[in-house]
């Protein structure tokens, strides 16, 4: 591991080390669904659990959101929790909150000390990113700044610039997810990942989505991606595969290249 690069340490998990971490999403629309989903997911021992709160029907009730986050924390113990309200323009569910309300809610969740990481899209207004950077830092929550393109794959230099932009905004972790329309697009994503690994000082998460991009979820870590997303119970994005299958593939690759 390059000693000049930062790692993010969350509840004993090292993001940015030699071991890729597996994150599984929670996508229930109410507390009962989330708890039922979580009971099954936690037995599969993911490294990180992402609560995709844009699926939550009571997102406009901050107290219910925080109470639910507390219940998730109680059930998962020391598994790190990533809190995400994915915007509709980047693949999330429609929500009733205006952006200022969303910023306030994410800030309140940071202050609750129930989550370990938050994800926010870097194409949002810089002042909003700044607010969340300040709040998350104050309360010890790691910030992922992300970019999602569900329609195409920009060229590799543009993808690298997105990752560097996240770093320049103060992100702890940079993330990009793009949609391939050909096998060549998948190679573009992997090339960008490899190049960014040489230039970034923070951990990153990269993936090519959909059926064509599924292979990047399996071995994108070989090129420098530090987290991969898998299905625990239900998928939150196209191309995710079951956690058991993903873990098996990663272990097989690690043995074959001597990285265990």
Automatic annotation (TrEMBL):
InterPro entries noted in UniProt: Aldolase_TIM, DHquinase_I, Type-I_3-dehydroquinase
Pfam families named in the record: DHquinase_I
MF terms in GO: 3-dehydroquinate dehydratase activity
Alphabetical GO biological process terms: 3,4-dihydroxybenzoate biosynthetic process; amino acid biosynthetic process; aromatic amino acid family biosynthetic process; chorismate biosynthetic process
Keyword Transport found: no
Known catalytic reactions: 3-dehydroquinate = 3-dehydroshikimate + H2O
Regions annotated as coiled coil: none
Pathway connected to this protein: Metabolic intermediate biosynthesis; chorismate biosynthesis; chorismate from D-erythrose 4-phosphate and phosphoenolpyruvate: step 3/7
Positions bound to 3-dehydroquinate: 50-52, 86, 217, 236, 240
Alphabetized UniProt keyword annotations: Amino-acid biosynthesis, Aromatic amino acid biosynthesis, Lyase, Schiff base
Enzyme Commission designation: 4.2.1.10
Residues annotated as the enzyme's active site: 148 (proton donor/acceptor), 175 (schiff-base intermediate with substrate)
Subunit-structure text: Homodimer.
Similarity field: Belongs to the type-I 3-dehydroquinase family.
Function as written in the Swiss-Prot or TrEMBL entry: Involved in the third step of the chorismate pathway, which leads to the biosynthesis of aromatic amino acids. Catalyzes the cis-dehydration of 3-dehydroquinate (DHQ) and introduces the first double bond of the aromatic ring to yield 3-dehydroshikimate.
Classification via NCBIfam families: aroD
The protein's name: 3-dehydroquinate dehydratase
Taxonomic source organism: Thermoflavimicrobium dichotomicum
């Amino acid at each position: 591991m390059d000693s000049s690069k930062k790692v993010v340490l969350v509840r004993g998990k090292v993001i940015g080390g030699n071991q890729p971490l597996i994150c599984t999403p929670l996508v229930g629309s109410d507390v009962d669904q989330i708890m039922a989903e979580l009971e099954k997911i936690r037995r599969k021992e993911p490294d990180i659990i992402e609560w995709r709160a844009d699926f939550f029907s009571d997102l406009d009730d901050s107290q219910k959101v925080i109470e639910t986050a507390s219940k998730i924390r109680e059930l998962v113990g020391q598994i790190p929790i990533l809190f995400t309200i994915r915007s509709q323009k980047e693949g999330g569910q429609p929500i009733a909150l205006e952006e200022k309300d969303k910023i306030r809610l994410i800030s309140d969740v940071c202050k609750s000390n129930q989550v370990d990481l938050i994800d926010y899209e870097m194409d949002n207004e810089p002042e909003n990113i700044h607010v969340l950077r300040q709040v998350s830092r104050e309360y010890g929550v790691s910030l992922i700044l992300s970019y999602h393109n569900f329609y195409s794959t920009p060229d590799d230099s543009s993808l690298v610039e997105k990752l560097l932009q996240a770093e320049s905004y103060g992100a702890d972790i940079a993330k990009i997810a793009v949609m391939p329309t050909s096998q060549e697009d998948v190679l573009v994503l992997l090339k960008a990942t490899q190049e960014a690994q040489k230039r970034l000082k923070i951990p990153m998460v990269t993936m090519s989505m959909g059926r064509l991009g599924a292979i990047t979820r399996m071995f994108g870590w070989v090129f420098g991606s530090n987290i991969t997303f898998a299905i625990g119970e239900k998928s939150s994005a196209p191309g995710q595969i079951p956690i058991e299958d993903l873990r098996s593939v990663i272990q097989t690759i690690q043995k074959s290249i001597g990285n265990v």
